[in-house]
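Subject: Leucyl aminopeptidase family protein structure
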Amino acid sequence: MSASFATDATDALPLWPLWSGDALPDQAGTWPDTAGFGAKLGEICLLPDGDGGLKGALIGLGDKASASRRRFTLAAATSLPNGVWQVRDLPEGIDANEAALALLLGQYRFTRYKGKAYEGPQFLCPEGADSDRVQAAAAGEFMTRDLINTPAGDMGPAQLEAAARDLAEQIGASIRVTSGDDLLAANFPMIHAVGRAAADAPRLLDIRLGEAGPMLTIVGKGVCFDTGGLDLKPASSMALMKKDMGGAATSLGLLKMLALSGAAEGYRLRVLIPAVENSVAGNAFRPGDVLTSRKGLTVEVNNTDAEGRLVLADALALAAEESPDLVISLATLTGAARVALGPDVPPFYCDDDATAQALAKGAEEARDPLWRMPFWQPYETMIEPNIADLDNAPSGGMAGSITAALFLRRFAEGAGRYVHLDIYGWQPSAAPGRPKGGVGQGARAILAALPQMLP
């Protein structure tokens, strides 16, 4: 598996992408018509050279009228025979950077438990694409997918810390970790409360990169496994809970993208990850408990399965104390977001219109879809219980993603601006460039939008 392009073009074979109905390149001859090639989505036609070898290939992009439904279609090129391939003559409507990223994303395989590395075709960077930026985006995405796909038995808080330390060393960042009972001494009571029942101690990862410029703080939910706590999930709901650290995985992938692409230059970056496992034991926090947060706000726990917002709250409070220019939280937070928008389109929340517009534009440019949702002020009453300042799980089941975002915003007060992304972090069925399994959401959009969000 590689997140990089081939560099030797000596024996590269040409690959022509075509929309249905497009004229064939002259080099193809009459063979595609004889073979019945119709340029259907992902259809490949190998071009023989007359001596038992290949002189190139065609790949179908499908119907151009429905192109927006088929992002990263060139990822299907990874089914070509092994060798080095060079895309020729990108047709109208296919962006060079999108094509380049598709070729790399299509090579992703999670092989940790199969012991078999990716063995497939390699590709030269398509003409007109920004090779360094695309490779950085793919490397960050591969990291995110690997972290999410790894079972919780091998990706608990300690292993997530190890991955963060490895990344920090790779990119020249500093990292500080507060764990176990030290969280209480350092005033992170809700991170401690959520994670204290697990065998693997809870911890807060604090990574910094850059010493000058506008400051961006990224807060990623790192619940490495979520049983639901004493409000225990049924088995069917627990099956995918290795992905509940998808916000942390995406945050680390984003940091890698920013560093490797050079986009981190001129900024102060900070990544905060509360890494916990929400487990069941005699010392687990209980429904009905009232927790006092780092910010001093009290929280009534009406559901121990709404733990992500609790650990994020302490981390957001820490982030806001430094008054950064922008705080972004990334979290696999609510099922309500999936009901509203499905698995592919995460909602994001932002009070600042210019920032929101920049992020929406970046999402479109990066083919990393997001949809703006409102911090709807009238719903504030829904997160205010009788005996504490806040309720972690309002009853009624309505507006769940909005009320979660409103809850988090209370703790981000003090930051210049705040953006929250309620991501899913999982591809439920295979799509071009996105095999079934863990997936990053929002990172490429942020990468594209950063110069406009933090000019």
